[in-house]
C-alpha cells in the first residue's frame, strides 16, 4: 500500500512539472507582440502550441526511449532535425498567413521596419530545439531516477535475502559440534551442561525471532555474540586464546541485526593451526553512537573458501555498503600469520 502511494506521488509531481512547462509556454506566446491583435488566444497560437506539444512528446515518449537511450544517436539526431524543420516550415506558413491578414497597419508601425521573417524562423527553430533539450533532459533524469530506485530495490531485496539466510540457518558444523560438546558434558555430568543448553537455546531464539526488525538493540546483538563465543569455547580444546572484550557504555544504541557475525564465523573457521591451537581475539569499543570492532585470528592450515563461509566476506562488505553508506570504515588485512578485521561504525 505504501509503495502504491509513493508511486502516485511521483506521477503527481511529473504531471505538475509538465503542466508548469506548458503554462510557461502559453504565457510566453501570449506576451508576443502579435498576440495583441486578438481579443483571445489566436488560432495561430493554438496551432503553434499543438505543434510544439506534438514535437515535445514525440521526442519525450518515443525518440529518447527508442533511439537515444538505446545508443542510436545518429538516428535520434536525424529524426529530431526532421521534426524541427517540419515545425519551422509549418510555422513559416502560419506567419505568412498572419502577416497577410494584418498587412493593413498604421504607417508609423511599418516605418523603417526590417523584414523579420528569417528571425522568426530562427526563433521558432531555437524554441523547438529548447523544447527538445528540455524533454530529453527530463526523460534522461526520469530514467536515471528509475534506475536508481530499481538498484536500491534490488540491493534491499538482496540484503533482506542475506539477512533471512543468516537468521534461518546455523552453521551445521557449529551446531553439530555444539550438540556433541553438550552431550559430552552431560555424560560427564558436568555442571556446565545446563548452561550450555540454555546458551544454545538463546542463540537460536535470537536468530529466529528477535531479528525481524531493521534495527535491534545493541545490547541484544552483543549478547548474541557472547553466546556464540560460549558455545565455540565448548568445542575447542585449547580455548585460552579465544577472547571477547567489550568496552564502553551501552545505552539505547541500535544496530543492524547479525552484522558482525560473519566476521566472527570466518575467524573461527580459519583460526586454528595444524596443532589444534585456536586464536580468536575480539575487541569491541562503544563510544556514544560509534562502534569499533576489531577481530584478529590465527591463519590456520585450512584452505580459504569464501563460498562456504557464511555469506562470505565479500557479501558482508556489500551489505555494509548498502546498510551503512558513508557511515562505516572497514579495513581487512593479513599480517604475517594473522588475519585482521577493523570496522568503525556509526550507530543509530
UniProtKB/TrEMBL annotation:
Domain Signal transduction histidine kinase internal region: start-end pairs: 162-238
Gene3D superfamilies: Histidine kinase-like ATPase, C-terminal domain
Organism: Flavivirga aquimarina
A Pfam family the protein falls into: His_kinase
MF (Gene Ontology): kinase activity
InterPro entries xref list: Bact_2-comp_sensor_kinase, HATPase_C_sf, Sig_transdc_His_kin_internal
Transmembrane residue ranges: 12-32, 44-62, 74-91, 121-141
Protein name: Sensor histidine kinase
Top-level taxon of the source organism: Bacteria
Keywords: Kinase, Membrane, Transferase, Transmembrane, Transmembrane helix
Residues forming coiled coils: none
PANTHER family attached to this UniProt entry: SENSOR HISTIDINE KINASE YPDA (PTHR34220:SF7)
Amino acid at each position: 500500500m505504501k509503495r502504491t502511494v509513493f508511486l502516485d506521488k511521483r506521477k503527481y509531481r511529473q504531471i505538475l512539472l509538465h503542466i508548469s512547462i506548458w503554462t510557461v509556454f502559453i504565457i510566453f506566446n501570449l506576451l508576443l507582440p502579435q498576440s495583441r491583435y486578438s481579443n483571445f488566444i489566436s488560432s495561430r497560437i493554438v496551432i503553434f502550441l499543438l505543434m510544439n506539444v506534438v514535437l515535445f512528446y514525440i521526442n519525450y515518449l518515443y525518440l529518447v526511449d527508442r533511439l537515444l537511450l538505446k545508443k542510436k544517436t545518429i538516428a535520434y539526431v536525424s529524426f529530431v532535425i526532421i521534426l524541427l524543420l517540419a515545425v519551422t516550415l509549418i510555422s513559416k506558413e502560419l506567419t505568412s498567413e498572419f502577416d497577410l491578414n494584418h498587412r493593413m497597419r498604421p504607417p508609423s508601425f511599418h516605418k523603417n521596419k526590417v523584414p523579420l521573417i528569417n528571425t522568426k524562423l530562427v526563433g521558432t527553430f531555437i524554441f523547438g530545439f529548447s523544447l527538445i533539450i528540455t524533454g530529453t533532459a527530463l526523460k534522461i533524469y526520469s530514467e536515471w531516477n528509475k534506475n536508481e530506485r530499481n538498484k536500491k530495490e534490488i540491493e534491499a531485496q538482496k540484503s533482506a535475502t542475506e539477512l533471512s539466510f543468516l537468521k534461518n540457518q546455523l552453521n551445521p558444523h557449529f551446531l553439530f559440534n555444539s550438540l556433541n560438546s553438550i552431550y559430552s558434558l552431560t555424560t560427564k555430568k558436568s555442571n556446565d551442561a545446563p548452561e550450555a543448553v540454555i546458551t544454545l537455546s538463546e542463540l537460536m531464539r535470537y536468530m529466529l525471532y528477535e531479528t525481524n526488525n531493521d534495527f535491534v538493540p545493541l545490547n541484544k546483538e552483543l549478547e548474541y555474540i557472547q553466546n556464540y563465543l560460549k558455545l565455540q569455547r565448548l568445542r575447542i580444546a585449547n580455548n585460552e586464546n579465544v577472547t571477547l572484550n567489550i568496552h564502553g557504555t551501552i545505552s539505547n544504541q541500535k544496530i543492524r541485526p547479525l552484522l558482525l557475525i560473519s566476521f566472527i564465523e570466518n575467524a573461527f573457521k580459519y583460526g586454528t593451526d595444524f596443532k589444534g591451537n585456536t586464536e580468536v581475539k575480539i575487541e569491541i569499543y562503544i563510544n556514544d553512537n560509534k562502534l569499533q570492532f576489531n577481530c584478529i585470528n590465527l591463519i590456520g592450515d585450512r584452505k580459504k573458501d569464501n563460498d562456504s563461509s557464511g555469506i562470505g566476506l565479500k557479501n558482508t562488505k556489500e551489505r555494509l555498503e548498502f546498510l551503512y553508506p558513508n557511515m562505516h570504515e572497514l579495513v581487512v588485512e593479513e599480517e604475517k600469520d594473522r588475519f585482521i578485521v577493523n570496522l568503525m561504525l556509526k550507530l543509530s
